[in-house]
Structures are given as structure tokens and as C-alpha cells.
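Reply to dn_fold:

You asked what the input looked like. This is it:
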Amino acid sequence: MKFILMMVFASGIVMNCQGPPPAINSPFEKVKALSEEYTILPIPSIKPEWWLREQIQKNLDGFTGRLDTLVPALILEDQIYGRNRLTKKVKNKNVGALGNEGDWQIQFLWWNSETQSNWRDGYLRSAILTNEEYHLRKLSQYIRYILSTQDKDGYLGIYDDDIRYKFDNENGELWAKASLLRGLLAWYEYTGDKNVLIAIERAVQNVMNNYPATASHPFYSKQPNVGGTSHGLVITDVLESLYRITKKDIYRDYCLFLYKDFSEQTLNEDAQYLKLINDTLPLKGHSVHTYEHLRSIAAAYMASGNPLLKKAIDSFLKKINKETTASGAAVGDEWIRGIRADATQRGYEYCSLQELMHSYLSLMVKFGDQSMADQAEKIFFNAAQGARHPEKSCIAYLKSDNSYAMTGGLNGDDHDKKQTRYSYSPVHQEAAVCCVPNAGRIAPYYVQHMWLKNNRTIVAALLGPSTVTTPIGNDTITIKEETNYPFGNLIRFEVTANSKLAFKIRKPDWVSKFLLTENYREENGFIIIEKKWSGTQIIELKFNPEVVVREDINHEKYFTYGALVLAHPIEALEERGKSFPIAGFYNYKYSPKEKTEYLFANEKVLTDPVQLKFKTLVINPRTKQKDTIELVPMKETILRQITFK
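and this is what came back:
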């Protein structure tokens, strides 16, 4: 015993001599790379069902499947990755947007690459998820074409020899690659075609050869307001996917280099490190940049394990919360401008809905934090559904929670005659054809993150009608999730497995009561069933939602029912505008038949959970009397009131 105590004492002396671990002096110092908590499944592993499949199918039959015919000049006629690559001689390009003359228009030259590649990313993912043969054949031809544009040195992009990688100002070099390669990666997951993966790796290696880590500055610009240059940081999406596929550290390490260079340049961007750790500095930048860059700093953190970057992420999330509305959307119309969220005075861009949802899901995968999935679910079920037209194939480029008019400007503001973003269109060509492509991406990205896994654990991370099939250990399991969630709250899981594994179901943050027909335990926001499975077993999970009155950050009241934010629909007058080359496609504006901004009365809500119709009393500010109004899910509305003072 004495000998043991002496050894422990001696060991303590050695440890004390070693002293504390060395201080971390730089946020970009690599400490120890981290592993992601969960594994993302290949896109063919998950199939949407019921309303989710119907929505994706409707997109394929509408703007997602037919955007090339709606705006052929931007997609079919401009082979920007091929024979129409940009050179020094190109001074202008048809991108469809309205704008004033000036040198600043050079930023538009890369726009068609974003339109084309983000559109095809959502298009091919939608075709894969629905197994639509016509669209898959069409996309297969495109894949063959785009691979044929790759140069011998691996270059795959939009610039010719005279200017590629030679920028000191605005450019779309990395952004055009990021948006293109994300789609190619999905195609590789679907086909398993090694030639596609080789082409992607060659393209990325070409980037790393021309922008060598620690010896180049891909984000340098002599002026701080850049669009494509800043967008290019999300090539980290591609690098992370390649790391997951190949396990090559070079891809993940390059994410850290990119974020370091991005942070050290003089740019008007919120996600730079020193700005993030300044708690007094609000978010100001172009919203879609800000919210997509959350993923990039998280990628850098995983590569480094540097706790200073984790603190920056935590600070970033707190700042985003100050810009978040009742529907889950973070504002930016199109700039955040340091002005906090407001249900009536601030709008949000459809692009931002997709990118912020994707960022939250990325953090869910990395950290296993179910609250990130709650945030993503709220965006998708409420803000994103509420910015789609409930009947026609078109979306709102910009939308506000309280939407009293959709006639071009925010809630009827008409001081800018060229403002068209607060309206519905299958294209939005007058502003930019960016939000419609992202409206085609958001459901497929939600679906691919519905199911995750980790070792011998399968995770229902996002709830909704779906089927997953994936190998776990030596077993291949299939789970059918039969539900109308969030428009219904009964979920029937049909589990087919023949091995011992843990089945984790995320318990949404709004759930206080539920019934489950199986033994379970709760842990860190998950319902966990762990057992030896045999054959096919049915498990039923029933949530018991109630209408809840909540407050937004401005202390205005709003109503929720389960995962749904409720809205009072406002009758509207429809004005049909521009038509398109396909019959039945139009731009639309909406003005209210009567505008009344009701006040909160703190009255009981009558519920019809089957029809999802609700009624309550509110105060009419004109009459000072109480009026009965109807509340419905945001998905069903065009004009609406969500918050009540």
C-alpha cells in the first residue's frame, strides 16, 4: 500500500512538472481534429413519402423541373462552364436582373453559374428522391456534358485561362465550383460512378494547387463589398463531403485555411472571426452570406478542434437568435443591417431560409445537438412553407411573418418602383434567379438529414413521412415512418431489422406529453429504444400538442400548435402579371381586401385538430371591440397576421 501511494505521489510530481497545456494563441491553430457525432446517409438511402413526396413532385412538375424552359437565356443559352467561360473581354452578360449602369455590374458576370448550379442541385436531388426517369435521363446527359468541360489540369469552372485564379476583386471562382460540385456529389451518391468522384477530386485538387494553403489569399479583394468571392467560402461543403467519402485529411484541413484567409481579409462579412467574438457587434451583412458561413466556421472548427472557434460559433448563434422571427426565419431583406428581427418591418429571403436550415443541420450532424434540428424543422415547416404559394408553382423572393401586402415592396411600400421581391414568381428574374433554385433545394436537403446514424444507432433526426434503408453493422435495416407530421401528430414506425441496435427519435422541443408503444428512455432530447430487433415490428408514437401562446423577441404574441406556427389569413385581391413560355406560369401580386392589424386579447383558442382550424378572439383597434378570427398553419396563407401586439 505504501508503495502504491509513493507511486501515485511520484506520478503527481511528474504531472505537475509538465505544467498546464500550452496556451492557444491563434483561433486558426490546429489543436486536434474532431469527429462528427453522426453520419449523413447517401441521398438514395431515404425516400420522402406522403406530403413531402407530393411537394417535391409538385416542384418537379413546376418551377424546379422546368426552370430551364422558363428562363432559357440564363440556363440553356449561356454555357458559362463551357464555351461561354468568362474572359477579360467579357464586360457584360444577360442575367435578367434590373439594375443601374456602372462598373459595379461586373459582379453580375458569375450570376448564371449560381442560377444554373443551385437549380440543378435541387433538380437532380428531387429527381433522385422521386425516382423520376424522365428527369434522371435528362440530368444524366447534363452530367456527361459538364464533365466534358473539365480541362486536362482538372479545372472545372467558369473562367478562361487569362483570368482564372488571378483576381484582386469580385469573382465567382470558388462559388461557381461550390454550387456545381455539390450537385455532382449528390449524383455520385446516387450512381456510385467513380468517374464523377474522380472529376470532383481533380477539380478540388486544381483549386488547392492554384490557391496553396498558407501561401495564397483566395479571399483578397481591394474593395470590401464582394458577392461571389464571399459566397465561395462555402466550398467547405464540398471539402467536407469529400473528407467523409475519402477520409483524406487534406480536404478538411483546407477548410481551416480558407476560413483563416477569409477572416483576415478586409471584407464586409459578418462571419469573420474578430467580428464574431465581438459581442457588441450585431450582424449587418448580406443575409445569405452570413447564414451559410455558419457551416464554414463549423467545418474549420472540426478540422482544428480549436476551442476559440467553438466560442465564435456560440457567439454566432446568439447573434442569429436576435435576428430570428416567430416562424424560425432569420431576417435579411437582403441585408441584415444591424436591425433586429421584426414580424412586420423586416423580411427574409428564400435563399437565406435554405442556407440557414442547412447550417443548422450541419451543426446537428457535427455536435449531435438536437436543438439545431428543432431550429431547422421550424424554418422548413413554417417560414419555408409560408413563402411558397399555397396553390400555384411560385414563391416569394422576400417574405415577412406579418404579410399585409405582396405588391413588390415590404407590406405595400412602393417608394422603389423597381422593387419586385415581395411578390410571387416562378422565376423572380427582375431581381435574381437565386431564390427559386433554392426553393427547389430546401425539401431535398431536409429529407437527406431526416435520418442519421452512429455506430449501431439509427437516428430519426427530423420527423416526417419517409422510408430509410441503410446498413448498420452486418445488418441492413429499413424503417418506414408513416405520418402526416407536422400536420398530424401520430407517427407509426415500421422497423425491419435483425440485430441489436439503438433507435433514437428526436423529441421536438415543443413536446411535453407523448405516448410510445415500446419501452424507452429519454436522454439529451431523444427518445431511445435499445433492444435486439427481429423481423418487422410496429411502434407508434403519439404527441399531444396544445395551442400555446408564445412571445417573439419584440414581446409580440403568437400562437403555435405542435410544430406549426399559426397565422390569421387575410383575404386578398390577386393581380396576375408577366406570363412565361409555359402555359399557366405567371407572376402574381396580392393586396388586402381589408387591412386590420389585430391586437392580442388573451382569450381561449377553440381547436379543430383534424382540420387544423383554430378560432380565437382578438381586439379590433378601430372598433375597440373583440372580433373572432381564424388561425391556420402558415403553409395555407398568402397574406396573413402572425404576431399580435
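The longest strand covers residues 475-482.
Hope that clears it up.
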